[in-house]
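pasting for the record
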Amino acid sequence: MLLMADSATLFLGADPDLAAVIARIGPCTLRGDNGQEPYDALLRAIAGQQLHGAAARKIFGRLCLLGAQESVDGPPPAPGRILSLSEERLRACGLSGNKILAMKGLAQARLDGLVPSRAEASVMTDEELIARLVTLRGIGRWTVEMLLMFTLNRPDVMPVDDFGVREGWRRIRKMDLPPKPKALKEETERFAPHRSTLAWYCWRVAEEGKKTAPNPLTS
């Protein structure tokens, strides 16, 4: 389902600069619920770190072949399965040693209850989830913010450390340089509770004029 795009764009459109962006780009198509469990989404995020989209998808597909359905389109291996797999089998998927350690840590954290299910996450605030999950190896604030926006359907996330968001805001406000994260946080607080949609428009503005395909995660 669309992430409350209609009400959000109406709210954001009260700002003249954003109204011009919305008119040019069109309706927000941010989908905030990809149907994944947090564990699955974080496992995919670890697999794709520092890789382009096609390479990340290929590696994650190989990992999914080791799951119960043995299909590149199936779910990734369950936590117990990840823990039982040897480093050699995981490296054969194209994973580095650091990513293997991060995945095994994530798997153990899911078994220990540190990584919540979707149902458990639904009663936690954004900041509670961020504070809990950034304690895991290989999981930073930005990764959790993407989980919040694209898996858990949270409407008010502003990933101020994201270069694309900062660059988009620079262009929207016609600034000479992208704002620092702290400044961007302060400047966008007045757009709560619709900052996920605002971030989506910032990404789209940052991509305008580029010949490369949009980022598959943030599009």
